[in-house]
UniProtKB/TrEMBL annotation:
Descriptive protein name: Large ribosomal subunit protein bL21
Quaternary structure annotation from Swiss-Prot or TrEMBL: Part of the 50S ribosomal subunit. Contacts protein L20.
Species of origin: Aureimonas ureilytica
GO biological process, one term: translation
Job of this protein: This protein binds to 23S rRNA in the presence of protein L20.
GO molecular function, one term: rRNA binding
HAMAP family: Ribosomal_bL21
């Protein structure tokens, strides 16, 4: 069984025991979170969300992504700028997928 959830402005296809990184969510390692914006479960498609469905996950750790360098140079102007960015991420493990009848 799989589900498609929406979090952080992105959509993820998840199944039980999947681990993946998402945009930073508040909480500590070991906390349980629930995603209620479920767009699809197996063949059931929501309009826009599946009624009564939710996905339960556990926070594994709070982490940061790789450093991305933004370098801008204006030729013949003796002008350049370097900026770095590291995105805050949350590593989560999917515990269970609850359909409308099971929740």
């Amino acid at each position: 069984m799989f589900a498609v959830i929406k979090t952080g402005g992105k959509q993820y296809r998840v199944a039980a025991n999947d681990e993946f990184e998402i945009e930073r969510l508040p909480g500590n390692a070991g906390d349980t979170i629930s995603f209620t914006e479920v767009l699809m479960i197996d063949t059931t498609i929501g309009a826009p969300f599946v009624a009564g469905a939710s996905v339960t996950a556990e926070i594994v750790e709070q982490t940061r992504g790789p450093k991305v360098i933004s370098f801008k140079k204006r030729r013949r102007q003796n002008s350049k700028r370097t900026r770095g960015h590291r995105q805050d991420l949350t590593l989560v493990r999917i515990s269970e997928i609850l359909t409308g009848a099971a929740s």
